[in-house]
Every structure is written in structure tokens, then in C-alpha cells.
Specification:
Layout (H helix, E strand, L loop, with lengths): L1 H12 L7 H18 L13 H25 L14 H13 L8 H5 L1
Length: about 120
Amino acid sequence: FSFLMVAIAVESGKTVKGVSLKMMECYIAVFLCRLTAIVPFEGYLPFDKSGDWLYQVCEAVGLCLAGSIVYCCRKQYAQTYDPDVDTFNSLWIIGPAAGIALILHPHLNNFLPTDIA
């Protein structure tokens, strides 16, 4: 829901001022990792299969919305994006998270790349 609100605010205001491109790129990585764990495998989905498609659709919609926000920051409204303000270093989040995931991860899919994701 929050990504939808950001996308609406960007499109209605025709500006990406206040949006962190680097954080949106991190969210794209998060959604891609989640989707690789829940689309081909069922280990991280609830036992009740009636709502499996809903989890997958929600993650896919979140990925599309985050991707559209990144597109707006890089192409459509690039003139309103200020890289001097967006000083977030994504390696400070991705690096430790990947390291912890390599050490502490469940084995619900029994496939290391998706269990780490």
C-alpha cells in the first residue's frame, strides 16, 4: 500500500523530490529475493493453499510499483531527483543482511539460494 501511495504522489506531483532512489533499489532487491523464494517453491507459504496466489501477487505488485518509482527517479522525473540529498549507502544494509542470511537461515525450500533470499 505504501508503494502505491508513493507512486501516486510522484505521478500527481510530477516530482520525485523526497524519494530515495537508493532505498527503492534496495526494495527491488528485497522483492526479487522474496519472489524467488515463493514462486517456484512453497516452503515459505502457509499450509493453507487457498491464498498462495495472493502472497505472490502482492509481492509482484510491490516489485512493479518499486520499479516504476525507480524509473521515475532515473528517467521520467530525473531533473527533480537530487542525488546530493540521497546519501544512503545501500551496502550498509545489503552486506550485513546477506552475511547474516548466510549464517542464519531456515531450510524450508531445501534449496540454499532461496532459503538465503
